[in-house]
Amino acid sequence: MTTTTMTAPIVTTRDALRAQVAGWKAAGARVGVVPTMGALHDGHLSLVRMAKSACDRVIVTIFVNPKQFNNPEDLEKYPRTERDDAAKLAPFGVDAIYVPTPDQIYPDGFATTVSVAGLDTMLCGAHRPGHFDGVATVVSKLFLQTGADQAFFGEKDYQQLQIVRRMAGDLDLPTQVIACPTVREASGLAMSSRNRRLSPGGAERAAMLYPVLRGMADALSQGAGFSGLVPQATEQLQAAGFDEIEYLELRAASGLAQMEHADRPARVFFAGWIEGVRLIDNVPAGPA
Ligand code: PAF
Fold it and tell me: What is the DSSP string of 161-174?
């Protein structure tokens, strides 16, 4: 028996997308969106799976957003794999792939920035100035252009998830933000489009990150203070090949305030460099 899967229609303009969505909504459909920058991996596909199970119609957006790159070389090097991405999405039966041309998102004279004060200055925000303004700006446009009822984001980018949720709430956008668990390789390494830039050995060593973070979370749940755990964890991560650690912090799961004891829901956050590749990860700590 042969099975054929159809690739979803690719829509490139806001007006064509809106006309499509209006038809779905008129028929009473609940619409979900999975915003991406392409280079899809199993982490993205798990968001698509969640969207398909919660919504009647699903749009995947693919837009490499120049406003969230603070390094022009990074933007240039970002993989553009639209054809492969469409093929990966085919088995899921998504209803549209929205690949806007840049003018659909940032028309001539575009002058607005959406900025979520407070949540964007720590963790990744402290190391990538302007990054979260770029994310909040493009995501607010994608919510408004798709008119989605629900949007699906991974917990791997936990700070992004918090910022997007705050932005949607503050601006009364009708899109509900749904958090989806981090998807990991069998080794424990969190899935990311950056992983493909690691050598096989580097990927193996980078996988040490997850047990180190989990170990910290376990010790926190037994009452340890966070600052006492940092030196040993740093040593383990350096031994694994992380030659720069940008941050290793315990923060509140909601609001991201810094913490010493996991006496309320928290997350251990990490960002660091291995083989010239910046990786981030986080795990829950303390009461659920
Ligand atoms: O997580 C991403 O891939 C991007 O930051 C997003 C949410 C698609 C906005 O460009």
Answer: HHHHHHHHHHTT-S
Confidence band (pLDDT; 50, 70, 90) for 77?
A: confident
Reference 116, options 69, 165, 180; nearest CA is: 165
The whole-angstrom separation of Cα 89 and Cα 3 is 15
Residue range of the domain that includes 231? 193-283
> Are 53 and 104 within one domain?
yes
Going from the C-alpha of 97 to that of each of 30, 59, 100, 137, 284, the distances in angstroms are 17, 6, 9, 20, 32
**How many domains in the chain?**
2
Pocket of ligand 1 contains residue 157 by CB under 6 Å: yes
CATH number at residue 169: 3.40.50.620
Residue-wise pLDDT for 16-57, tens only, equals 999 999 999 999 999 999 999 999 999 999 999 999 999 999
2 in a domain, yes or no? no
Let me know if residue 4 belongs to a domain.
Answer: no
pLDDT at 1 over 80: no
pLDDT in tens, 207-229: 999 999 999 999 999 999 999 99
In this structure, the answer to whether residues 119 and 211 fall within a common structural domain is: no
Among 138, 141, 145, the mutation site with the greatest number of ligand 1 atoms within 8 A of its Cβ is: 138
**pLDDT of 61 higher than 90:** yes
What value, to the nearest 5°, has the Cα angle with vertex 171 and ends 147 and 252? 110
The tokens for 71 are 């390094």
**CATH code where residue 227 lies:** 3.30.1300.10
User: Is 65 touching ligand 1 by the criterion CB < 6 Å?
Assistant: yes
- Regarding pTM above 0.90, the answer is yes
| Model pLDDT, residue 4 | 52
Clarify whether residues 47 and 152 are in a common domain. yes
- If asked whether residues 173 and 242 sit together in one domain, one would say no
